[in-house]
Amino acid sequence: MSKKNFIGDDWYKNVCIYQVYPRSFCDSNGDGIGDIRGIISKLDYIKSLNVGAIWICPMYDSPNRDNGYDVRDYFALQPEFGTTEDFSLLTAKCHELGIRVIMDVVLNHSSSECEWFLSSSSSERDPKRDWYIWRKGKPDGAPPTNWEAIFGGSAWNYDAKTDSYYLGTFSPYQPDFNWENAELREALFDVLRFWLERGVDGFRLDAINFISKAPGYPDGMAGPNGLAPIRPFVCNGPKVHTWLSEMKKKVLSPMHAMTVGEADGSSVEDAIRFSKEIDMIFSFDHVALDIGPNFTFNKKIPLPKLKSILSEWQNKLRGKAWNALFWENHDQPRIVSRLGDEDDLRAVSAKMLAAALFFLQGTPFIYQGEELGLPNTRFAKRTELRDIEMCNAFVNYVDTGILSQEHLMRFANYKGRDTGRTPMPWDGSPRAGFTTGTPWIKLGDTHRTLNVENQDADEHSVLNWFRTLIGFRRNDRVIRDGEYRVYNIDDPNVYEYTRLLNGSGYHILCSFCKDETRYVCGFEGTKTQMLFSNYGDDTFSETGKLRPFETVISKAELP
Ligand code: NOJ
Ligand code: CA
Q: Whose CA is nearest to atom 3 of ligand 1?
């Protein structure tokens, strides 16, 4: 199918999108690193999930300080991932199968090895000097502000050659672009045009709400380390919408590109504002409830709070903006390890969590391995970790004696980004069918039993549950357009909601409790037919009890 055969610009409202983390998906040549040929070899599998598109994490040439989110060359691919021919083959094959391709693009910052930055840092008179954010230090030589980079340390990095500092919101290896500069904006728009011309259907816009910084660059309230968290000074700044509407007018609209923006720290009101320029945003409040300050976590989340966040997004975006629904991605741990169970109830809890999300209004994003109900991979020691965020945290907090090694290791195994970045388990063989070589990061601990081959063969597997639900919701008008209503929002164990269009639709009941729980149904209409049960029931049993992590989805009618 050529791109032209896709009808309408709102195709994303009818499908689920599958996220591929290329480094860990499938390795075709035994170097231990997943690659484009590997993805191509698994397209039939992706097709079998019934998804309508894939989002692939960055594959541009990069020194990989942050696994590709530090782009060295926006117009070239990382050689270990493959060639431009491989990429063309990938998009062509995806389109043949009716799968659209969403590319991840990093427009807030480049790599410090990007030619643009090398040029910008070469002299104050360089034509690209103003493409990045340069400032002189304070009179005493201290950095221009006390902002702390997201991956630790000052966000300002001293450059002796020009006696100036450059801003790196994430790390020194990721200098921020200066979007105030019109030439820089044009250069970034050219990046989008380049890949759209090569067949991609849209973009996941990395950290896109960080592009406009707080006017005047004020200091923040410093914590004990003398630094202030940077987010309030870079999130949703005053010019973000001006620049995104320019991007929409010049590139996105004329080239029919779908967009999903990563917009950490955004409210529903922000989401509505973004909807004028991009199709939807990822927000993170619903996956932050188990995380406390100073690398602490509490697995027991208040379910009413989770329900109220999800419900607020469902209700307030309705008719105004579109939800991007997700539990997992490459920055998040596995959802069964957070809200479900890793042991005997792993499969039922994974199925319940999928159902809770898939019947909401919006576009669900599924992260590779989520469809198998994979739990977090656990790391035994610090040297097994690969992610810049956690590796830096060890340097900044353990090596300085602020936190114990055990404390941070416990956190890394619960919330660290490597927990979900280990190789996709294709089969139970020693290297999980991912590679014939040595994987770039340790394999998960569970692939001998939890893998695609086993779950493919088991009609009751989590994988087959995902396939069924994803297929069921595809093009379903009630799921796309129906009204959302939540019941008994204060119940601490059960999430009950309906989706109804002209009085009929679906009733969704999900127990988030690992024990049996009593429940009185809040919906006053009739449940006419049971559609899905994660305990395999085929008739209703109205006992008022729900089994651990039970979910039942029924057809429903208002009286
Ligand atoms: C968000 C990406 O998802 C994450 O992986 C990355 O580290 C940061 N943005 C910086 O680009
Ligand atoms: Ca490879």
A: 331
